[in-house]
């Protein structure tokens, strides 16, 4: 069969070969037709650019204190106004995007690695190994997300790095469950049975044959969970157990603004919009990728 497919491809012209050899081309076409997905991609791309270029585009030092500019309303000098200490809100939001993007990437990467490995092992080997791992998943799901995060942060202590660890530990169960379900289906496919017949080791079958074929739901989950991770970081920082002052964090900025909602509403408005837009961007991106990958959905 493989030889016949090669002969068919060899008889194609250059354009047809590109289409045949690059199946992601069709996925990209479908994604480009998904308006909400493209909107999410643009939002995430802009947030990442802002985070990378923060030192160059921020008009002021986000940590610079100027008591004479305390609680200044939005103006040409300070487009988003200033906070109680006279710090520029726009500059702090720009630098706060770095925290959010790092949480969206690093925390989700931790969850993905743990969940992917445990999900592969549970789905492939089954038996008592599957039972133990799935009971751990059930225990993780038994706790409310925020309360579980608060408990872990209480043990680890507040801090930038500990936020990554706490969110990563909590989110791994979602990836493990999704990966396990995909592996249960994939392990009975012909290519896996053929690899077994040829004497391939379990590790090779899992990582060489099965994992590349279950990557689609993992990518979608990573995009969606990035938004939830950013929201979790904002909540932890708002409660005072996440990123610590004076580091700029959108959740911490909202916490500082609680007492000034009536006379300085800009302190609450702009960090809240930043969180909402960023989380929405990741969710739209994840939904767009899901719809583009799934051939059963018409876009």
Report on the structure:
The longest helix has about 35 residues, at about 90-125. This protein has one domain (about 25-50, about 85-295): MetI-like (MetI-like fold, Orthogonal Bundle). It contains 14 helices and no strands. The protein is an all-alpha fold and about 300 residues long.
Task: Count all strands and give the number.
Answer: 0
Structural class by helix and strand composition: mainly alpha
**What is the CA-based Rg, rounded?**
23 Å
> What is the level 1 CATH name?
Mainly Alpha
Share of residues in helices: over 70%
How many alpha or pi helices?
A: 14
In the CATH hierarchy, what is the superfamily? MetI-like
The fold-level CATH name is MetI-like fold
Which residues sit in consecutive blocks of at least 5 with pLDDT less than 50? Answer: 1-21
- Largest β-sheet summary: none
Question: Nutshell version of this structure?
Answer:
The chain is mostly helical.
């Amino acid at each position: 069969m493989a030889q016949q497919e090669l002969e068919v491809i060899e008889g194609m012209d250059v354009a047809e070969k590109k289409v045949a050899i690059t199946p992601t081309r069709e996925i990209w076409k479908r994604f480009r037709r998904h308006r909400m997905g493209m909107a999410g991609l643009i939002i995430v791309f802009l947030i990442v650019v802002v985070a990378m270029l923060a030192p160059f585009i921020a008009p002021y030092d986000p940590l610079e204190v100027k008591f004479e500019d305390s609680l200044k309303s939005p103006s040409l000098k300070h487009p988003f106004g200033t906070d109680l200490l006279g710090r520029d809100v726009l500059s702090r939001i720009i630098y706060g995007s770095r925290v959010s993007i790092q949480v969206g990437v690093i925390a989700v990467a931790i969850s993905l690695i743990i969940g992917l490995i445990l999900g592969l092992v549970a789905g492939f080997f089954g038996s008592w190994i599957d039972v133990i791992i799935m009971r751990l998943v059930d225990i993780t799901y038994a706790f409310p997300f925020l309360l579980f995060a608060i408990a872990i942060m209480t043990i680890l202590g507040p801090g930038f790095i500990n936020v990554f660890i706490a969110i990563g530990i909590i989110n791994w169960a979602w990836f493990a469950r999704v990966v396990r379900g995909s592996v249960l289906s994939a392990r009975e496919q012909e290519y896996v049975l053929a690899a077994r017949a040829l004497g391939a080791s379990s590790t090779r079958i899992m990582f060489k044959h099965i994992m590349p074929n279950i990557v689609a739901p993992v990518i979608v989950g990573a995009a969606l969970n990035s938004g939830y991770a950013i929201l979790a970081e904002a909540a932890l920082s708002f409660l005072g157990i996440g990123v610590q002052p004076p580091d700029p964090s959108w959740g911490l900025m909202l916490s500082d603004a609680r007492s000034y909602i009536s006379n300085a509403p800009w302190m609450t408005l702009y960090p809240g919009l930043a969180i909402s837009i960023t989380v929405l961007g990741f969710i739209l991106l994840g939904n767009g990728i899901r719809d583009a990958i799934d051939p059963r959905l018409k876009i």
